[in-house]
Amino acid sequence: MISLQPDFCDIEIPEKEHYSIEDYSSSKARWCSGCGAHTILHSVQKLCTDEQLPPEKTVFVSGIGCSSRFPHYMKTYGFHGLHGRAFPVASGIKFRRPDLHVFVITGDGDCCSIGAGHWVHAIRYNMKMVVLLFDNSIYGLTKKQTSPTSPLGTHTNTHPTGSVLPPINPIQSTLGLANVSFVAQTVDWKPAHLNATLKKAYDHPGLAFVRIVQRCPIWMRENYEPTVKDPDAITVLNHENGIVLEENALKKFRHIQEHDPSNLVKAREVAELVKTTTPIGLFYQNKEAIRYDEYGAHNLGVPVEDRINAINSLMDKYAI
Amino acid sequence: MSNNSETIKSEPVKIKREQIREAVVEIVSDSGEGAQKCGQSLGTISAKMGNGVWTVEIIPAEIRPPARSKAGASGIRVRMGSKKVTNMGDHADMVVALNEQVLYGRIDQNAYKPGTYLLIENKWATDTEESNAAYTESIQKFKALGYIIHEIPMEKECLKHVSDPRKGKNMWVLGLLCNIYDRDLNIAAAQVKAIFSKKSDDIIQSNIDLLHAGYAYANDNLPMHFTIASKVSKEDFVVMNGNEAVSLGVMAAGIEVCSMYPITPATSASHAMAEKMESAGGLIHQAEDEIAAIGFAIGASYAGQTAVTITSGPGIALKTEFIGLAVMAEVPLVIVDVQRGGPSTGLPTKVEQGDLLAVLYGAAGDAPKIVLAPSTIEECFHYIILARKLAESFRTPVFVLTDANLATGVQPFPRPKIKSAWFPDPIDQSKWEEGVKAYDWDPKTGLSKRPIPGQKGGMYTLTGLAHDEESHVAYDPSINQRAAESRSRKLAALHKTLKEPKILGDKSGDLLLVGWGSTRGAIEEAVERARERGAKVSSLHLHFLSPMEPGLKSIFKNFKKVMTVEINYSDTIGNSLITEENRRYAQLAWYLRAQTLTDIDCFSNVYGQPLSPIQILEMLEKKLDLTLTE
Ligand SMILES: Cc1ncc(C[n+]2csc(CCOP(=O)(O)OP(=O)(O)O)c2C)c(N)n1
Questions:
Q1: A266 interface with B at CB cutoff 8 Å
Q2: Distance in angstroms (rounded) separating the CA atoms of residues B197 and B337
Q3: Strand-pair partners of B545
Q4: Of the residues B124, B272, B574, B575, which has the fewest C-beta atoms closer than 10 A?
């Protein structure tokens, strides 16, 4: 500790800490080998290292599903709660704790089915947090039931002859929600794009919704293999305000489409591309959207005397 | 009050007044006619004069039932006495009805007795041919039932002072009642001023004129005048309903997050705090549904600020999975359940104590939690403060069970002096002690210290899965047994600190009544009245339902019979299908039978009404074979 102006203030210089990637890794992940979650975990740990997030100030909140085991594999604070309910918990955590870095980990069943109501409202609350939708288009943990994002005709244990309804397009749906402020898509098998997307999401002043197309080698191998192997399957959305890849990385993609992420109407159009290709990149960003976490933090730390005065003034209304 | 500038215009003619101990007054009308404002004012004026008061709202099930209809009774009952008043009383002594049709609903509910005064707006006698006929017929019927009828030209009298009599008739009625019951007119005028404080001087003056006019009318035209002795207390008092008390309790407990979704009859608890919550350092979060409301509260609690969620039965049903999580992961949380009639949407505005077993056992698996039940308006305030402390000390959700009767019942009580000790310490952000696990269960008490995000070295992943001390998913089954034991031990540890419940009356006798929650006033008054007539009956009232208060089994042994008195469903013995084997008991009875192996009987019903002392006395007469009522 050094003293500047002893009678004015003391400045405590904290020990300088540097966090390495091991500081964010907990027990060995128990996902199946080849599961896309492994690469996402690594990418998230890299983000934490790059940003030097203090592990004690970082919280991963999840629902239930294979993907929702994620917090157990981070050496940060974590909340592995109920199926579909990660959003309200994360919102409650962030509401009065602007100092915490909050991440939401959710699956396609978790977010787009049982938790769909909360998804709609979390987007509207637009609290600063990073939401990672691990979309493998199937219910993994409960063993291959149809998910709301399963492509029409997917053979599952609930629909052995093929699913009968068209899937929800989570990008399109999110772009239709009130107060939406950040929507991006990436895939788990393109680490450079995944890393750049996570960084962009982390920097966003609001709720960053990232759908990660995720491989499930056990239940959905035939769905993903063509996309993973086909160099034509992906279209990169490119823009200086979007997810910017280094030239070398960008060169690896054959299909590049310019898209200005400030244009919501255009973003909704581009989201329709999902039907023919896998678009990756930033669909939409608005840094000015109203943030409910700012409302939540606006009256933190009211001194006890003031609080007592406020209560007494309300009590006066009932005084006789 | 004596130096109030509003002085009585002309000293009324001297009248003779009968001294009475208490009175039960009702004002009934179509909704929207200001009957409740009138009754609340009468209650406040009486409380200010130093009388005991209890008011209860009379609520039609629909927001806007058809005008002048039998089911449309909306209004208020005010019971005022020379001593403390703890319940709504038996039958009304005096009823002011702004139309005669709404009286039918109350008569069906057995709210009146022969000799009850009915003061009825007589404009319906000449309004339309149709209303005229209905009016005349009703007056005859009411007379035949033994009520004392006074037909009063309320509207005509009001028109002397205002052009729209629908605005202000209630203040004229207030004046009328103030005269009948000898209420201090200066206090009354100050009350009228307070009600209209945000309105123009003209409006205030015309309402005060109406008050005086009603007062003078009763003085000059009515034969019955009473006076109720009162004593002004030196202590400061407040007068409010149970939801308002909960609301203030939340703030005084230092709770900074109230996360709710609107549901009758719980919502007004959040309304009451809305105005000042922000300046008191907290916020109300109106969530997208009840599941989100509790999830949000749990998130806030997990992050270090113990939150409250306020709801009613259907909301509890939705929250159940999260309640299980809060128990499993040991998250402190305050849950207020303002119970209403169930199951399903049930009777949204009416009272029931129907959620006890759901709250105790509603979750999957064994989910022990603390359950408290305030029995007075004052306790509604203090129990929230207690609940937060217990939630944090025992690292568990705490339920506070109130009901529609407490929610809307109004009673004066000593003004709480807010203490900084009621507030939580700032969120602990110190370094977590090395080597201490996230669930370092004390083998004896099950208690453990909780790491809070921000605490260096305390990192853990909270999970609803079975977990070990480090919050790691339990792959070894013995861990689940140990963890369940630890959570259960916490209740045993709290139980050890509780005192035996107090008994009203002798410690032994023919019958012990056991109650919980809002029925206390009615039960205790019935027991006192029965004892005055020689019945060997006592009562006790439980405030802790989980863990249960200690010593019950041995207390029960000293009585020939034990029975609970509750507002929820039970089969009554007597139906040919109902046997001792299949009888479904009232909820506390069920629970006490299991806990104490005592043959406990029950008296309960689901008419959706608060219990009155007379109902309990009539039941006692049958049980004890004594005459206890007039
Ligand atoms: C209330 C509730 N209903 C159902 C389940 C069973 N369940 C667990 S995970 C899951 C679906 C998981 O699918 P998804 O969200 O896509 O995640 P994934 O396992 O594929 O990562 C279901 C139905 C549960 N845990 N809780």
A1: no
A2: 34
A3: B548
A4: B574
Q: Which atom of ligand 1 is nearest to the CA of A67?
A: 21
Residue burial B241-269, b: 16+ Cβ < 10 Å; e: rest: bbbbbbbbbbbbbbbbbbbbbbbbbbbbb
User: Comparing B18-228 with B503-624, is the CATH topology the same?
Assistant: no
Contacts 24+ apart (CB under 8 A), B185-190: B185/B8, B185/B211, B185/B212, B185/B215, B186/B1, B186/B2, B186/B4, B186/B6, B186/B7, B186/B8, B187/B1, B187/B45, B187/B48, B187/B49, B188/B41, B188/B45, B188/B215, B189/B4, B189/B6, B190/B1, B190/B4, B190/B6
- pTM equals 0.95
Residue A34 in any domain: the answer is yes
B289 Cα: distance to centroid of ligand 1 (angstroms): 20
Determine whether the shortest distance from the Cβ of A281 to ligand 1 is under 6 A: no
- Judge whether residue A15 has pLDDT over 90: no
Is there an atom of ligand 1 within 6 Å of A141 CB?
yes
HEC profile for B171-202? HHHHHHHHHHCCCCHHHHHHHHHHHCCCCCHH
Q: In angstroms, what is the C-alpha Rg of chain A?
A: 22
Q: Would you say residue A4 lies in a domain? A: no
3-class state of residue A254 by DSSP: coil
Is A2 inside a domain boundary? Answer: no
What's residue B11's pLDDT? 54
Across the range A227-248, mean pLDDT stands at 94
Round the average pLDDT of chain A to a whole number and report it: 94
Instruction: Report the residue of chain B nearest A94, measured CA to CA.
Output: B300
CATH topology of domain B503-624: Rossmann fold (3.40.50)
**CA–CA dist B38, B25 (Å, integer):** 11
Mean pLDDT within A122-133 = 98
Choice from A82, A87, A113, A139 to test ligand 1 binding pocket (greatest atom count within 8 A of CB):
A139
CATH number of B18-228: 3.40.920.10
Ligand 1 binding pocket includes A188 (Cβ within 6 Å): no
What's the rounded Cα separation, in Å, for the pair B86 and B413?
Answer: 11
Query: Measured between CB atoms, does B433 come within 8 Å of chain A?
Result: no
Domain B241-422 part of CATH 3.10.50.40? no
Which residue's CA is minimally distant from atom 26 of ligand 1?
A: A83
Q: Whose CA is nearest to atom 10 of ligand 1?
A: A65
Min distance A19 CA to chain B CA atoms (Å): 13
In single-letter form, the type of residue at position B332 comes to P
Domain, as residue range, for A286:
21-316
Phi, psi of A282 (to 5 degrees): -95, 120
Cβ within 8 Å, pair A92-B303:
yes
Is 60 exceeded by the pLDDT of residue B9? Answer: no
The HSE-up count of residue A223 (CA atoms within 13 Å, CB side) is: 23
Number of domains in chain A: 1
B 218-257 near A (Cβ less than 8 A)? 236-240, 244, 248, 251-252, 254, 256-257
Interface pTM (ipTM) of the complex?
0.95
The CATH number of the domain where A121 resides is what?
Answer: 3.40.50.970
Residues of A in contact with B420 (CB under 8 A): 304, 308
- Does any ligand 1 atom lie closer than 6 A to the CB of residue A278? no
Q: What angle do CA A44, A49, A53 make, to 5 degrees?
A: 90
Q: How does pLDDT run across A35-72, given as a tens digit for each residue? A: 999 999 999 999 999 999 999 999 999 999 999 999 99
Cβ burial of A283 (10 Å; 0-12, 13-18, 19+) is buried
What is the pLDDT of chain B when averaged over all its residues?
Answer: 94
Contact: B302, A96; criterion CB under 8 Å: no
Q: Chain A: residue nearest B424 by CA?
A: A304
- Residue B442, SS3 per DSSP: coil
Average pLDDT (B616-629) is 93
In chain B, which residues have their Cβ closer than 8 Å to the Cβ of A302? 279-281
